[in-house]
Write a structure and sequence with these properties.
alpha/beta; 6-stranded mixed sheet; 14 helices; 34% helix
Amino acid sequence: MIWIGYTTLYRKGGDKFQRVARTMEREKRATGSDVEVRCQAVESKADFIAAMEQIRSEGKLLTELHFIGHGGMYGIMFGTTSWPEQFSPHEWRTLSIPFAPGANAYFHTCRSARWFAPFFARTFGVTAHGNFWYTTFSRSPEKFRWEFSDGAPETPLYVISCPGKKSHGIAGSLMKYGGGAKIEKMRRFEPSEPDGDTTYDSVADLYDQTFEDITVRSDEWSWLNRHLPKGEQPRVLDIGCGNGALLARLSGNIISGFGVDSSPEMIARARARCSAHANLTFGTVHGPQLDFPDRSFDLVISFMSFRYLDWDPMINEMRRVLAPGGKILIIDMAASPVAGRDLPLFIRGKVYQMLQRRRNPRFVEHLRRLVSDPNWRTMLEYNPIRAEHEYRWYLKSRFPDGEISVLNVGWTSRLLAFDSGELQPGSVAPLSYP
C-alpha cells in the first residue's frame, strides 16, 4: 500500500495540503500499478496511530509512506498552533509502523532532511527522504510556478523546496517569485548508524573546563536568580544537569538538589565537582521517565537542555514530581534570525562579548576549543536547536499563564527563558497520545 497523510489544521495552508495530497493520490493511481493508494487527513498523533493500526489490522504493508504538511526540527507537526502536537524521539521509537521490505518514507515538510528523515531511517530501518530547505506550494513539481489565486480542488498542486532562510528570506523570495529559484530535490537517507558520538560523553572534559563557573552565563544566571521561589528554600530538580555547576552555585540556597543527565561522563564530573555538597545528588536518566515519587520537588529547572528532551512525556513527568505551588524554569537557545526590533539586545550582546574577551580570556579560549571540537559539531548535528516559534507555541499551549522572555540575541539564534508560574499537581492535558 502507498499511504499519503496530510494535515489541514496546524497552520495556514491546510486546504492546499489537501490538494497536494489529492494530486499525489491521482498521480500514483495513474501509473497503472495495482498497489492500493490511500489518502487521509491525520490531525493529531492519535490519528496517525489509528491510521497505522488500521493498515496493520487489514494485513497490509506500506511500500511508501508520505506525509504532507508542516514540520519542526524534530519531525512532523499535528494539532494546531494553539495546541501543537509532535511525536517525541522516544515516542517514535516505541511505535510500530507496518512497512514492507524495501519501503520508503517521504516527508514533504520544511527542514525534514536536517534531523528527522535520517532519524526516521535509523529508527524504522527504511529509506527516508526529506527537504533541507523550506517548502512552498507550486503549480509545477519541476519549477516554482506561483498560483496567483486558489485553484479548484481538482487543480494539480505540489509541495516543493527552495533554498533560503526563514520562509526563504528576502533574497530567497525575490529569487523564487522572479523565476530564478532552484528546486531542491528531496534528500535520501539510508538506515545507517550515526557517524560518531552523538552524546556529550566525548566532549565532557571540554564542557567541564568551559563551564566550571556557571555565572559566565551572566544573562541566564541573573534571570534564574530573579525567578527562584521566594521564601523557604526549595527542593530542586535539575534536568540535563551537565557538570553540576548550576546546582553547585545554588547549593547554599536550597534544601536539596538532584541533578539528572543522560550522559554518564557528565554525571561523573558533576559528582566530582559537588562531592563537598552534602545536599546534592546526581544520577543518569534514560528516556522521559523520572525515578522520583510524586510531589518530590518545589522547583524543576531545565538549563540549556530543553531542546534535547522528549517534550510532552517529560513535561508530564515534571508536573508529576512537582509539589503544589511549585514551578518550572526553562532556559534554552532557539533558532531565529535577528530582526530590526532585536537591535538593542543584539548590540548589547555584542558589546558583552567584547568585554568578556578582555575580562575572562580563559573562558573565551575554553569556549573556542569546545565549539571547534569535531565531537561537539557531531553532537550538535544530531541534536539541533529548535525554532523560536516551536518553543513559544508549545510552552504557551501547555502553560497558558507562563511567561517567556528573550535574554539575548545573536545573528541566527536567541536565548529564551520561561517561567511557568506556580502550578498545581496534574498532567498536561488534553494530549491525544499516549
